[in-house]
Amino acid sequence: MSMRQCDVLQTTRREFVGGTLLAAISTRAIAASSRYQIGISPQVAGTAWSKDIWLAFREIREVGYRYVEAFIGSFLEYYDGNKPDQLQKRMDGAGVHFVTISNGAPMEAHFEDPEKHGKIIEEHLRLVRFIKRLGCKHLKINLGSRRPTGTTGEDLKHMAAVLNELGPRIANEGLQFGIHPHMWSQLENRNEIDYLMANTDPKHVMLVLDTGHINMAGIDPVELSRTLGHRVLEYHLKDTKKEWLGGAKQRVDNPDMQKDPPFFPLGHGGVDFVALKAHLDKIGWRGWMVVQLDSSPNQSPQEAARVSAQYIQKTLGMQL
Questions:
Q1: Which of 89, 101, 160, 235 is least enclosed, having the fewest CB within 10 Å?
Q2: What's the CATH class of domain 34-314?
Q3: In this structure, are residues 85 and 134 in contact, taking their beta carbons and an 8 Å threshold?
Q4: Which of 44, 41, 48, 53 is nearest to 94 (CA)?
Q5: Which of these, 267, 262, 255, lies nearest to 304 by C-alpha position?
Q6: Nearest Cα to Cα of residue 208 among 152, 138, 158, 293
Q7: Cα torsion angle, 196, 198, 201, 203, sign
Q8: What is the number of other CB atoms lying within 10 angstroms of the CB of residue 117?
Q9: For the whole model, what pTM was predicted?
């Protein structure tokens, strides 16, 4: 081999090694930055978004979000006709992708009623198979509206039983499964959360922690994350009134979303998101964080979404 050929070979090797190293560094950087995946919900009561989900998706994309989470009731045209491919085509046109699609009307939601369990399992597995074809990796569910008398100990036993049956079946379909404590639902307060977490299989039944609803239930979402962070599949990011920092002093019952809104764009001061992220950084948590506004009476939902996006990027140091 000539000296020139040797030099060329060594240069090529250096370029290959250097390029490989840079690619490895780049891959690690991407992996690190994607530990938190950001989405947003288009469900904002009393706004144009609540009337036209495709307008919401277009405006969401204009702000910079790329992932959305919604309820199956918004897509019944595609769901009832079993047309996920057509729904995916429309999503591609809007430039957004699904985090997941939640249960909701017209699905059965009486988890406390053992006579409804067969229907619950059948309907939720159907939903899982539908959203799987849209690229979703997990199912998030709410647990039905709360009765005036609240959720009893017997209710919780029945709820745990059906969740333990549903969870492994969802896993067999290749998806993870998370339940969402939500004010005014069957699963609302700390006692109920603790019971279901203690009486369901941690491999198959996880938690969707909504910072706003947890706060309104009188619970500090940061403290709950420290206690149950290993069970959290997804976060819903809502801010609340500043005076509710650390948990509202008393249960908040059905506030007027327009005249007395409980939720605000991120950074309002009711939830310590900086402390929450510091804890999640510390334990190496990975997963979806979905911004939720629920209402936006003082500004357009697109502007509220923009304010939250800026907070996520500038204050929390995460990318959309």
A1: 89
A2: alpha beta
A3: no
A4: 53
A5: 267
A6: 138
A7: positive
A8: 20
A9: 0.89
